[in-house]
Amino acid sequence: MERSFARWHTVVVLLPVLVTISGCVSADTSDSRENEIGDPYPSDECGRNDNVEEGPEFLTNRGEFPWAVAIFRKGTAQKNVLICGGTLVGRGTVLTTAKCVHDVPTKDLTVHLGKWHVGVGYENSEMVLGLEERVIHPNYTVLSKRHNLAVLNLCDNVKFSSAVNRVCLADPDEEYQSNHHCYTVGWGRWDANNTNQLLRLKANLISHTECQHYLRAYGGQWRYNLVKEAVCTVPEDTIDDHYPCSRMIGSALVCTRGARTDQFHLVGVASLLERNCSRSVRIPDVFMDVRKYTAWVDQIIDE
């Protein structure tokens, strides 16, 4: 059911067999294993994690960002392809880019929650669900790149745990300044060894005007017009040989708010990848500004 794909890093893995139940494509993940970090979550509060200690540079710990999801497209011979990232925003709701999923049949999409390493098969903490429907933003067009968002309604509601939790949606009126902790979270390429683990980048938000200037000056597109629904970041850390150059569309920009450093809010969804790692400059990352779409997402969640 529907209302109404640049791939930067292709990963093909063997995944659980898909079965169709009541119009939904679900994954048979039943086995005798118990979740490594899947203990029942002590709080129903959004944006909380159970593993806040930072790991090595750029690498996350398991469960550090439990709302990060991997979206796969059904392939051949049970080999499914990772096509983008997404973010769990409700018990049965994922937010991603329209560009990723608009031309893929709903029955061919699966969402992997609790995923950390996309280069391996099924992980102990992993939950795999099919889609009941996808909702493309009604004003999205491929050419304009505006309103590049899609909501995925899962076949089943998720049981929250230390491995899987929803993120809070950012308040439409909230301004995220230097006293906020912001991260880009998603899968990509770390260095020549190409890790497939979930990555984090400390990031600072910049103004729309500054972002467009950088994209025009360093992105080689002098007439580039940044859509007004975008929000941009530059990396907080110094760019070096270990800087993750490649990143999935659909990756999340999450920030804490004020003095509350233990709760994250979804501010953006990665829509463009303008980063050019052959230059020693801070080319911005571009996201759809979730603050401009909170009412639309909330309406779908409440239906």
From TrEMBL:
Keywords: Disulfide bond, Glycoprotein, Immunity, Innate immunity, Secreted, Signal. PROSITE patterns: PROKAR_LIPOPROTEIN, TRYPSIN_DOM. Residues 1-27 form the signal peptide. Residues 29-53 are annotated as: Disordered. It is found in: Secreted. Belongs to the peptidase S1 family. CLIP subfamily. This is Uncharacterized protein.
